[in-house]
Amino acid sequence: MKLLCSQKDLSQAINTVQRAVSQRTTMPILKGILLETSGDKLKLIGNDLELGIETYVDAQTIEEGSVIIDSKLFGEIVRKLPESYIHIESDEQNNITIKCEHSEFTLKGHSPVEYPQLPELDEGLLYDIEPQKLKDMIRQTVFAISQDETKPLLMGELFEIQGNSMSLVALDGYRLAISTSTIENTIGDISVIIPGKALMEINRTISGEEESMSMSFTQKHALFKLGSTRIITRLLEGEFINYKQIIPKDNSLVVTSSRRELQDSIERASLLAREGRNNLIKFSITDGLMIITSNSEVGNVYEEVNVTLEGGNLEIAFNSRYLLDSLKVLESEEMNMYFSSSVSPCVIKPADNPGYTYMLLPVRISSGS
Amino acid sequence: MKLLCSQKDLSQAINTVQRAVSQRTTMPILKGILLETSGDKLKLIGNDLELGIETYVDAQTIEEGSVIIDSKLFGEIVRKLPESYIHIESDEQNNITIKCEHSEFTLKGHSPVEYPQLPELDEGLLYDIEPQKLKDMIRQTVFAISQDETKPLLMGELFEIQGNSMSLVALDGYRLAISTSTIENTIGDISVIIPGKALMEINRTISGEEESMSMSFTQKHALFKLGSTRIITRLLEGEFINYKQIIPKDNSLVVTSSRRELQDSIERASLLAREGRNNLIKFSITDGLMIITSNSEVGNVYEEVNVTLEGGNLEIAFNSRYLLDSLKVLESEEMNMYFSSSVSPCVIKPADNPGYTYMLLPVRISSGS
């Protein structure tokens, strides 16, 4: 293999495919990136067997070929090289030479023969979505994914397409986040579970400047296409919880407040809460005023937030972290909270985005605590 | 105690004095900040018995008094409060109330009675120095301080004033950094050893926007005054190494190069070096060309840097980290390196700052390695 490409393009491409390279694998070849000439392009692939990312950079191919190069070292070297042209060459023993201006590196590579192939996906039927829209949907739900390895399905998000409506759903047993939006075309309904790690890497890969993005699904895999980058993830296999049943229909109490004011007050209250039990903060809600309190051995906090309340007064308590996780990812100025009782879930909706729902369970408190 | 002050001023003052508060102390009172009314000011002190920082903020004192408040929690609370006026009150049981707009915190404080006093220093004789100048001198030497607790004197820097010349000297047995500059006035000669931690905190406290700064010394302490902030540190007691004897006088070889190019090449070479032994990189210097190489089990690197050389050719090796530590803190475009042999120390001087000297020992290499 022998080729020339630009340092800037190559550095960016390595950053992209590196997201699928695991440093913790026991298979040394998976710590590498596949480099392969492909016409006037250089193809790069990172693959940890769950998630694979493939991308291309413009290159002048002098001699065709392919090689596996250590991902971390290759990334560090290319990042430190001057903004110029890089000459990459590999021989039959997979010795790799990287030259750029006054620098020359020689590294030992691996044979690409044993490198796992990315699964083939039919790209005939592609769902189109705005990249920024998908990025927002992931960001507003992914924190609610479970970290509990005994519940592997909850370590992913339900990815549902019905007509041209698309929903992402994450839940961990304490809270549930749903983001619903529209896709550009209608092909057929889909219901799959995508691992949290893949969603986070898709989120990072989308810069927000891309104009279009498309998706394709098989029984076992999902493909996300973004420009010349293809992200392929294995799906989690099984039946996702019937989340629609969980969301309370009876919401007799509706609280409306400024999101920013509420977030600031909860953040301050949680400074004391986190030192206590379960990040517990208590809410006492009347029309006009929400009082937030938290007590711990180091002190007490009392916060007032202006609200409007439809329905009767309410006393309720939450884990402050679960509330903040959601408030932090919303942009709306105004938000609504729906309650039915102090032991029933609370539903949060931003005023400007009816497609977003966050539900969380309260913490039961005895009247004396 | 009862007072009003601005959130912004108070938050900044807490950040300043917190630098002298240790979280690892076994004396709970030292995890606190002393708050004390002082006319139309609030005085704040942090003190870990080695380093003490005192500062003042404008305040409207309603009732005089003082209290110790947990530094970490107080800082977090004030940082999160809105940019408004903060009301602070403490009672005889040292219960503290902090109010700001719609927030109210109550915390348990400590009695200030047992809080250690800052040492009294005569402020009659003050040495004046430009704050930015002192900041640069610290930054360009402090990395060469020893981390070896068996050599406590080398964990500080020699602080020498002779006439109106001031030098900071740090050395750790492998390298030596000296920064010399002028102070504004001449009072008397001084030679003290200031702990590295104090120097780093002085460096952080100087924002670079201050107009003036002054210093005072006793047998046991040094005082640095910056606006309304006083930093007082204990001195390290003992005799500093006679560093002037160490610096080689015979420098028959002089290499001149671009600092930036040399730094970039060494940074790339060290990508492979750090995986090998002692961050070893080798230099082969002839007039016109410096060749930098490094070899490890993962690969080799070869770098060329344009240089001019006065004197004979030279082969020499260094720990790349020790070289980079110095190159990174210099701003000059051009730099000179002085050598006498491959086993003698190298002296580095930026072309635009004759007051700065960095000396480092080479790594001995056998001809075969």
From TrEMBL, chains A, B:
Gene3D superfamilies named among the record's database cross-references: 3.70.10.10, DNA Polymerase III, subunit A, domain 2 (3.10.150.10)
CC per GO annotation: cytoplasm; DNA polymerase III complex
Keywords, sorted A to Z: Cytoplasm, DNA replication, DNA-binding, DNA-directed DNA polymerase, Nucleotidyltransferase, Transferase
SMART domains tied to this protein: POL3Bc
Major localization class: cytoplasm
Coiled coil: none
One record GO biological process: DNA strand elongation involved in DNA replication
GO molecular function, one term: DNA-directed DNA polymerase activity
Localization (cell): Cytoplasm
Domain DNA polymerase III beta sliding clamp C-terminal: 244-364
InterPro entries given in the database record: DNA_clamp_sf, DNA_polIII_beta, DNA_polIII_beta_C, DNA_polIII_beta_cen, DNA_polIII_beta_N
Residue ranges of every copy of the DNA polymerase III beta sliding clamp central domain listed in the record: 129-240
Source superkingdom: Bacteria
Ranges for domain DNA polymerase III beta sliding clamp N-terminal: 1-119
Family affiliation: Belongs to the beta sliding clamp family.
Assembly and binders: Forms a ring-shaped head-to-tail homodimer around DNA.
Known role: Confers DNA tethering and processivity to DNA polymerases and other proteins. Acts as a clamp, forming a ring around DNA (a reaction catalyzed by the clamp-loading complex) which diffuses in an ATP-independent manner freely and bidirectionally along dsDNA. Initially characterized for its ability to contact the catalytic subunit of DNA polymerase III (Pol III), a complex, multichain enzyme responsible for most of the replicative synthesis in bacteria; Pol III exhibits 3'-5' exonuclease proofreading activity.
Listed name of the protein: Beta sliding clamp
Organism per entry: Peptoclostridium acidaminophilum DSM 3953
